[in-house]
Amino acid sequence: MNQQRLSRLSELLLEMTDTGYVSGVNCLVIQDGKEQCYYEAGMRDLTARLPITRDTIFRLYSMTKPITAAAVMFLLEEGRIDLYDPVSDYLPGFCNQKVMSNGILTPVKRPVIIQDLLNMTSGLTYPGEGCTSEIHTDLLMDEVITKLSSPQALTTCEIMNRLGKIPLAFHPGEKWQYGMSADVLGAIVEIVSGMRFGDFLRQRIFEPLGMNDTDFYVPAEKQSRLSKAYQDTGKGLEEFHFPHLGISNDMKTPPAFESGGAGLVSTIDDYAHFAQMLLHRGSFDNHTLLSPRTVDFMTHAHLAPALNPYVRQWESLSGCSYANLIRIMTDPGAAISLSRAGEFGWDGWMGTYMTIDPVDDMILLIMLQKTDTGTTAYTRRIRNVVFSALNESIQFA
Fold first, then answer.
1. 84 with 230, same domain?
2. Checking CA distances to 239, which of 83, 104, 256, 330 falls within 20 to 30 Å?
3. Beta-strand (E) ranges in the chain?
């Protein structure tokens, strides 16, 4: 890669922190198995003046989802699940589901299946106020948060069985909507494996890949490395403490609810090990976790073409399709940053970001901790620098 062009990333990260857009950020690019650059800027704790470092621990939020998808792929290739299995086979709360349509509850045309969860076509939503499903999901998550630190804290399977009783936003398979599907998959992994979801991830993914700082909580001896979370109040950055989506912000103790959609923490190097495993079609550092064919299935688009317009309503997903809890670039000409067909990845609510480009054998990771961030203009500016630094010409918008 062109190092002179990549060096622009240092200036961009400093701009992000110097302007107060974020407290701190780091960025890593790997190509052909070699680190091309690593840059960091700003603070993980503004009050204590502690800098972002390479071993800073970040809340992943939705960048948990690709790890959950990989966990499901283990069960798939071992013949322990079928993607057409009704979710109610595993979670009885999903029996006899209803859809709310024009104020009327009607039975589902067909049950929610595992593939619906992987593709976000289940009809499940996130908390909100836009429809009956969002409102009831909000009430459920309020209860989860209320009981979070008590002996009555709700477990992953308890929450998901309760979620299954909430009216769906649409009939399964008929639309695409981002929601709590990945959390349900975490519960299914628990039930099928007979292990807590976190134990399964640790045994099958984290330990083989050397992801020693990735978990659903941060033990006491590592707490000093956990970045503070921040929100933009309009008057600058302030610390954020609310347990969004039922995830404890301080991450001090193992949670009863291990969220497959949002619950993990990690470092940039830990996540790079996972990303390289996907890039190398199931293998990393002499460990083979998944077969190449399984990873190929996971990282290629399966969404029905008629559903892609729902995905592309999100500005950050222009040119993308969606499958197995990841975005997949299918039309670089419709993208709004330099892109490559077949590139895939995801981001997180606090600004963590991953993209994997198999054609160029390249990984880009960005880590920061600011609420309501996801993919931003700065993310795209970083992407443009990285993709322009590739030595061969690429497709672009």
1. no
2. 256
3. 24-31, 34-45, 50-51, 58-59, 98-101, 104-107, 230-232, 237-239, 265-266, 283-284, 287-288, 320-323, 326-329, 344-347, 353-357, 362-368
Chain CA centroid to CA 64, Å: 4
In DSSP terms, 215 is beta-bridged to 265
* SS3 state of residue 306: helix
User: What residue has token string 């890949």?
Assistant: 209
Question: Has residue 160 been placed in a domain?
Answer: yes
Q: Which residues contact 7 (CB under 8 A, 6 or more apart)?
A: 37
Tell whether 107 and 59 lie within a shared domain. Answer: no
Please check whether residues 162 and 100 belong to one and the same domain: yes
The distance from CA 156 to its chain's CA centroid, rounded to whole angstroms, is 17
Q: Is residue 305 part of a domain?
A: yes
Q: Are strands 98-101 and 24-31 parallel, antiparallel or unpaired?
A: unpaired
Cα separation, 129 vs 52, whole angstroms? 36
The pLDDT value given to residue 397: 45
Distance between CA atoms of residues 384 and 338, nearest Å: 5
Instruction: Kindly report each contact of residues 150-153 with a partner whose C-beta sits within 8 Å and lies 24 or more positions away, as own/partner.
Output: 153/255, 153/256, 153/257
Count structural domains, the chain.
2
Q: How far apart are CA 362 and CA 242, in angstroms?
A: 35
202 and 288, same domain (yes or no)? yes
Within a domain: 397: no
Angle between helices 65-77 and 181-193 (to 10 degrees): 40
Do residues 79 and 132 share a domain? yes
pLDDT tens digits for range 35-51: 999 999 999 999 999 99
Residues 219 and 264 in one domain: yes
Q: Do 360 and 243 share a structural domain?
A: yes
Q: Which domain holds residue 245?
A: 3-66+198-388
Question: What does the DSSP 8-state code read for residue 215?
Answer: B
Task: Quick: pLDDT tens for 235-250.
Answer: 999 999 999 999 999 9
